[in-house]
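Notes from hallway chat w/ T.B., transcribed later so I don't forget. T.B. wanted the structure written out for a chain they're using in a teaching module, and asked if we could keep both sequence and structure tokens in one place. Agreed to drop them here.
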Amino acid sequence: MKRSNRRGGTGTSFELRGFLTTSLKTRGNRSWVIRCWGASIRREFADCRFINGIASESSYTRKPEIVARSGLARERFVTIIHPAASIARTAQIGLGTSIMANSVICPDAVIGDHVIILQNTVVNHHSRIADHVTLSSGITILGYVTVEDSAFVGGGASLRPYIRVGARALVGMGAVVVKDVAADETVAGNPAKVIRRKEKS
């Protein structure tokens, strides 16, 4: 946060006041000397904006639910872009999205709301990253790829052009994805193969 403020980042300076958490274990604790609160505390911070930091492999499919439980209006969330990230002029970035250092968003790429893009990840031209997606570090997403809502792509994965990763799918670390991944599937390997498929209820 201090580095983003110092180097200009999104053009806005931030003061970190604390963390909202759904975990009872962390509520009231201090994390990096900043207090953690439950969502009900939001009323005491009516002047604050919020940054989405939900990026856990264990909770990625629940991100829409967690955001909704915060009770915060969409416009209360701010998009934060590290000053060392590169964003093309024609790229579109949604609200509540965080883009970390050295990531590159190429021309005509579209990034939805509440997306987390970790360090050194590339989203190439005309690719579409839907709401609530998590992209780990060191990912290469080539052109015209679609990643649907609440999917999780593990570190170092590569996605070939024109493929689609379905909603709530999980792409394992280092996977090389050369064909579509269906909703709720988990794929891993080179080339990526299905290792788990959530049964429809």
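Follow-up for T.B.: The mean pLDDT is 84. Might be a good example for the class.
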